[in-house]
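Q: Fold this one first, please.
A: Sequence and structure below.
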Amino acid sequence: MNITTNYKKGPSMTSAPESPSIKILLLSIFITTCLYQPVLAQPPQYSPPVWWFGGAAGANFNFYRGSTQQLSADLTPPAVFHEGFDVELFLGPLAEFHFPGSRWAASLQIGYDSRRGTFKEVLTPCNCPANLSTNLDYISVEPIIRLAPFKSNLYIFGGPRLAFNLNRAFTYKLGINPEFPEQAATPDQTGDWSNINKTQISMQVGAGYDIPLSSSSHRIQSVLSPFVSFHPYFGQSPRSVETWNISTLRVGAALKFGRGHLIATTTKAEVLLPEPNVRFTVNSPENISIDRRVRETFPLRNYVFFNFGSTEIPGRYVLLRKDQVKEFKEDQLEVFTPKKLSGRSDREMTVYYNILNIMGDRMGKNPSSTIVLIGSSEKGPEDGRAMAESVRLYLVNVFGIDVSRINVEGRNKPEIPSEQPGATLELNLLREGDRRVSIESSSPALLMEFQSGPESSLKPVEINSVQEAPIDSYVTFNVEGAKEAFTSWALEIRDEKGKMLGFGPFTKEKVSMPGKFVLGNRPEGNYKVKMTGMMKNGKTVVKETNVHMVLWTPSKNEQGMRFSVIFEFNESQTALIYEKYLANVVVPKIPKNGTVILHGHTDVIGDEAYNQQLSLARANEVRDILEYTLARSGRKDVRFEVYGFGEDENLSPFENKFPEERFYNRTVIIDIIPAK
């Protein structure tokens, strides 16, 4: 379902001969139009303010701990005071910067900050009750960073606190022994604390919630923000002697005011298209009512990556005991899972982290096969050779492979390094990918079909899996012209009850996401989508539209196929080495009237915009080979969908924490869907 906001022109009016009836009709239309104009007119709309100003007020719940006895140079009571408590005032102005649509905000508040309190009553050696109260007051300077983790009005915050002492008075009261009621009372003693720290540097963490008090039809907008924050005792010791410290729980609210910018408004009859010329559309596909079970041919990268400073096989790889070898089966890898994976990497990475076990199993079943292990290390060939020797020892000791079938070598850099001469950015990630042991072989039993030579890819692994919401069921937001018109743009999506979700800011013209991001657990819903673009001159452009979204809900009646093509770092032509594989293995599996979905990806190394173009070039490279092969067979019945998602971590096949994951994200995934 495509929904586009555009101008709609009204009907033109032609002239006609004048007559009394026509004059009366025209006069009636004129009067009616004038009467209804106030009803149809929409109030002006203003963007959310960027700067907010106001004040915050709250109650400080001050908790005294530690101990104190010497109050000043002239007064040391005969008993030690330990714990205390009081509720006091915080009050001050604030300023806040919050770019519309962003999760982040920053603010500064400077205020009167009372840390007064009363210690618990103690008994002196004369059995007299003693009481001590304090009048500690400060001016606090509190810079704060805010984060709205769910793109909602709820936010968390934290930051330092710089406090300057204003008042350091105390009042000490010594009562009379109750056994001697006729005893004369001791006068109260007042004074200033000695050894007071004039400046304190501490911190606070907390949470709050923004409650709008005005609508977007007001230029001056206001927000009420209840909040709670905790100020731990670190850095809050009032004195440079003894152990008295203060922890504070602050509960309060901030009232903020900001001025919005006038933006284009919409009416029921039309959507105004302000300059610049930007076209906003939302594509929400109809529900795909299948649980797409996938038979996946998963490529096997012939690399084992090592941690810096170590020649031992990393713990994230699955290492078996000798008595487990008989139980190992390549088509049941879920039994042997890595220990340190989560999220997307908990799926196909299970295959990759069994690479040593797969090699040992295959070499055991093919006694004539041989391999060469080439270790590459930034420390030199000897360190690289030690890495390769660790792999050889594992295959020999655990799988019983004859040592003569495995040769080892060492070098500074791999044959195809990630770090290129002259590179200056993200070198740590590039070098992490170059610290590896390459598995090379000339034995056909170990290699991918139509591959030969020492640098050929290893034979892939076939696995069955259940595909998550497929790419063709994603909701896509298109902002054509955004790159030229905006520095960034963001989305606000509201449901029927007014609950709002925010996404962005974005710089790309097209953004896709699973419907579950918006719907949650709802099966479907109607949403009002607002796009706010920030222009280079600071003004905003707003487009709105309505969309019906349906969650991708599965049933069980179809199996798709998935293949992957792996690329080297910063390359888009590597698919040529897969040409025979794509033509002779993949194309014959494309059913008549089927759909082929190609989605290209990159790792997170490099510029985001460049990576988006690189991923699209990779996907188009694979499509060209498939289309050419199909055309040679006289087939024109296949529909192609091509996507380039770049380094988008919401859509990438894997995470980017380890080099294995980054290498597998340099890919084009081929989904083959039978005709419905």
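Q: Good. Now the second chain.
A: Here it is, same layout.
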Amino acid sequence: MPPVAAAVAAAAAKISVAQLAAGLVVSFAVNTVVGALTPKPKSRPAFVDSARGRTEMVRQPITSRRTVYGRTMVSGPVVYMETYGQGGGPADEYLSLVVVLAGHEIDAVEELWLGEVQAPYDASGAVTSGRYAGYAWVWPHLGAADQAADAELVARSASRWTAAHRGRGIAYLHVKFRYSPDVFPQGVPKIRALVRGKKLYDPRTGSTAWSRNAALVCRDHLTSKLGAAAAEIDDATVQAAANVCDETVTLAAGGTEPRYAADGTVDDDRDWREAVEEMLSAMAGTLVWTGGRFEIHAGAASAPVATLTEADRRGPIVTTPRLPRAELYNAVHPVYVEPSRDWQPIDAPPITNATYEAQDGGQRIRKNAEYPFTTSSAAAQRLAKIELERARQQIRVAFPAMPKWLRLKVWDVVAITDARHGWVGKEFRVTGWTLRPDGGVDLALREEAASMWAWSAEETAIDPAPDTGLPDPWTVVEPGVPQVAESLYQTRDGAGVKAKAVLTWTASPTASARYEVDYRPTSSSDRTELPRAPGTRREILDLAPGTYEFRVRAVNPLGATSAWVATTAEIYGLLAPPAQVTGLGLAAIGGMALLSWDRHPDLDVRIGGRIRFRHSPLMSGASWQGATTIGEAAPGGATQWALPLKAGTYLAKAVDSSGVASTAPATIPTKAAAVLAFANLSTVAEASTFAGAHAGTAAPDGLLKLAGTDLVDAIADVDAVADWDSAGGVAASGTYDFAAGIDFGSVKRARLTATVSAIVVNVLDRIDDRSNPIDQWDDLDGTAGADADARVEVRETDDDPAGSPTWSAWRRLDSAEVEARGLDFRAVLTTADPAYNIHLDTLTVDAEEAL
């Protein structure tokens, strides 16, 4: 006798002996139903824990084997772990793990999940996209009978993982990680895989292949776990049930799915009957032990195999019209495993019926129905409807049948015609029967309706009002691209004025995000990191001038990071031109020009800087390069300054502590109006012959200018000289002594006014003509910033200037009052860049006396 038949027969014999000993009615259990037509309710926590356990990765060397059916997400025990270095890296830079997925061959690994994100990988095993790209590799092994050992592990760890570690009949993943605190802020992520599980034998084709068919899953469990022999399986019923499972059902949202599918796992330490009940729940079916064989039935409408009448009874029938109140319900709340919710148990939309509620006094009586092997909301709702409708077919009948009806089996549908009950061909399903001593059979029947198996795209969309909208905790949205503003600040340690960059960005939509900021000069790969902190503003102090890359990324409370967002900005620091002088005004007071202006906004002008002034004889159109310095520069923090009063235009520029001037001057013209009237005493005009003494100056074209620095006999190619006056570049300074001075004949009081008309010119207009370093050039593409200048100086004596006079020291002359007999004048020309010269076409001194 086959092993399962022997076990069932022994159990039946014990029951019969016990019943006889108790003096009960003799009965012989020919049909045994494994699992009720309506599966027994199980505790919800057990189902939830079981479903969650499928995807948990545990470090456990000894554990029960797991069978994976259909398509489902699984993890498993970590049976091997190793850290090592590679390519000269740290000894713990890499980590290898071996995670067992199933204790048998599986059909495929469809997806790899690390933590809460999918990790696509290529044929070489490298994860190709997402946060783990470049930091994770995976090599799946399906558990085939001829499976070879993992080549990467053997090559690296031959002493620990050898070619003999083949794992035949064991499906596992070898996963390798490369350490990075940014990628793995919480340590090793949970490793899971979406797999196509065990290959199943199909008696319809005689082949073995992967399938989700619930009937084939149940058959496999009986043969592999219970050890049932092929002869103990009624494959005719298996084939019929498998055909029902494969029927196509149209979905409300479009598309189709199989009528019944089973996706789940079974651990070897579970009771086989509990696992079978869960599999049967996925197809609203029943497992029957009859005639020494298992029959597998899937839920579906069946035509009656016989019609029973009063002539088929051995006695009166006993009818129970309604279920006890404790067993009654009118709403079913299905719980199933939802793939889109991380393969966790959730509630499907409940199945309710207003008519049934009215029959029960308007009270909703709820039942929770769990479907551990169901992964479709639509399928869960179909199964729940079957369960509800089957429960509402409440009539139970004890039918004492004649011996000929021994041929009826559990799950058969029969029709009953009985005038007393008003039944004409009313359908009932056989749920059990008992052989009586008189040779008859007592049938246990339950009301049946073909409509309870019907379904026409009636399902409700999964959870139309989700319980939560929480985002993926491992997906962090990038903040906005940082904006960079430069400013200066004064240090407290006496170091003076320095530059800082102020970064701002729009916040990441990720809740409770903090931010990491770093920066580097574009000429270097070394980054400077700022401490992680909340807020969307950072100050970076003491930046040297240069071009920088600034980056920012968001970090959530779990340590997951967004991608970096970056921008590039140039920091000028103290080399940035200061702002233009604003609010320039002038008041003529007693021969002086009192200039006033707004407080300068730049810190490095106010501290260590100055305000420079120039004067042009033009009343309009005056330019900085066409003017000459007048008076001394004012401190950068000043807002007023007195200068000699002269007709023309005054120009002012701010110069910072680094010597960088503002790009454009502020200007104000004046007629030099005075209260006193003056009459001309004498005028000295040097243009255009400039016949005085030259020292570093020349005037070959009627223009006074600085001379060149080369000697003629030092010029290698005279034909290549474009400007003989500036050959070799312009001299840094030169002095021109006026050809004539002034002799008043006696000591007089007079007002002197110097008038200079000048223009700055570029004498080396080609870059390769210049020899000094580029960072010393005043102006690259014009003359507006070129620092060339001219001033008039005067010395005086009370002696006869034609004799042997005693002269005073030279002093600057813009406009001044003197008391002397003789006056001597000179012009001093300067330039800070040998590429620029200053040309004077007017050089005059007027002497006047008050009327």
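Q: Anything worth noting on the second one?
A: The longest helix spans residues 3-21.
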